[in-house]
Amino acid sequence: IGGMVLHETEDDLHEIMQCFLFFSLEFLYLGGNFITSIPPELANLPSLSYLVLCDNKIQSIPPQLAQLHSLRSLSLHNNLLTYLPREILNLVHLEELSLRGNPLVVRFVRDLTYNPPSLLELAGRTIKTRNVAYAPSDLPENLVRYLSLASNCPNPKCGGVYFDSCVRQIKFVDFCGKYRLPLMHYLCSPECSSPCSSASQSSTSQSESDSEDEASVAARRMQKVLLG
């Protein structure tokens, strides 16, 4: 099958995808179906080159979509997306990305939430940040496994870790030299959400959001995403 145009309800979508898993689909049109979520089964279509998901109610992109290594065109316009997962950067053959008509980063700053860490997480953070030595025989198996799940804070000035409690923030990343994409990343605390200088800049330099009005910066970045 070279291409397929589907107009089905979301209840039937997962069943339909199961039927097509063994076909070499190259073009799949799922636009205008009131879909609210993308079935992860799409990742099992290795020959898919053109995927149209426009004019739906999609709020997030599953990371599994990054497994579509043959994907050249991805149409996501007119949905409810507020961010894109970082995994989308793995779509190295993507030539066309349509994002117009999505909220993207309009209100993400006001919607940021932070759940206070549990006592378990606070203890785990202390062990990791202070390099407290321990052996598997010193702790129950579930705690050893928990400590192995520590994620490093991406803020280079922090050096902290987090487990379950983290701060969500949008980071703009250049994609293929064509797009300026808002990708979700996670920080260990609200204090890490302030913009920091890149490695190529001096520690005293300020980011553009420090020196310019936040609203105008967000609007300009939004324009770059939508025009891409």
Automatic annotation (TrEMBL):
InterPro entries: Leu-rich_rpt (IPR001611), Leu-rich_rpt_typical-subtyp (IPR003591), LRR_dom_sf (IPR032675), LRR_domain-containing (IPR050216). The keyword Repeat applies. Residues 195-218 are annotated as: Disordered. One of its GO terms (cellular component) is cytoplasm. Keywords: Leucine-rich repeat, Repeat. Residues 195-208 have a biased composition (Low complexity). This is Leucine-rich repeat-containing protein 58. It comes from Dryobates pubescens. The lineage of its organism: Eukaryota, Metazoa, Chordata, Craniata, Vertebrata.
